[in-house]
């Protein structure tokens, strides 16, 4: 059987996760045939990366030539890793041209775009996968296993706290994510992972959402209120103010960041190293959400993007007991400037507390790789030889929609001060 052919649209930091895996680990079952981007410099760098791995460079196409790329290279599937607000454009067009799609999360950023994608799936009959790698991490799979086994009976409430540290969390405020028009804010871009996990763990759907959120730490006004007086717009060429700022990102000092972003600026004017305390930040950094699910369970969720530590705590309360999960992750700077693998773990623990019984420390299988060991499992599921997964972790367009709709509803609730019915935003099949 011939290897399945993939084209990649969007060649930023996340794209390398996919195209490197295809070339290094899955060449027997998958092949890379093209790159597509708005930026030729970035595509040239992606080609240099695969050539360093012994793979010949692949044809490159500007975004305006997306249809031409499909016609000339004939991929079986398109991998979409562009900025979030453009996912729908390439997902829909690829399906209209008869291709299946693999999309980086979030599937898209708002209800109209979500409806557009769902209609395209129905109209074309093509398949869309959303890459929720956290499902595949052994500790998250173990939680699913515990809950589905009935270890704590019916789950009635979930308390979920996610902490992004001053490396990872700050990075969203340096780059295009800081503009809500691009990312939908962290409740859509980042929390889509977390809301998907809750949907997956509970095997249920969000019904009603209420939320509060604000920008309390990042941004110029907050820095001014704390007494800051030295400001700069971006780290490169930012002078003494940038050199003295522990949040500043020095792209020139990192080969990949320099080649992928600094050297590519002349084409599109995108600055990867903007000051987190500058103007133009329109997303929240402090958020609280309540969700009622169709199962009757209620979620209380918190996301803080300026924590001194990275990781999460989640507790499930059920009719037969309680499960407590704590995960501490190592700090990193993504998109090529990594200090370590994204989501690499320092510690994990799962404690089962049955009613009227002694607490039990649950053993968690060990796994290597990013996102707590989830990345290799996801990549094998995408590009390797298909195997049956008893946990059904592969995420479809329906899963992609349900995860973002919690965040989209939360954004609407924050702006209106009212609870939001998810079904009133988008009808999910």
UniProtKB/TrEMBL annotation:
Domain Gfo/Idh/MocA-like oxidoreductase C-terminal: 145-422
Family annotation (InterPro entries): Gfo/Idh/MocA-like_OxRdtase_C, Gfo/Idh/MocA-like_OxRdtase_N, Gfo/Idh/MocA_Oxidoreductases, NAD(P)-bd_dom_sf
Domain of life: Eukaryota
Gene3D superfamilies the record matches: Dihydrodipicolinate Reductase, domain 2, NAD(P)-binding Rossmann-like Domain
Transmembrane segments: none
Gene Ontology molecular function: any one: nucleotide binding
The Gfo/Idh/MocA-like oxidoreductase N-terminal domain, residue ranges: 5-132
Protein name: Gfo/Idh/MocA-like oxidoreductase N-terminal domain-containing protein
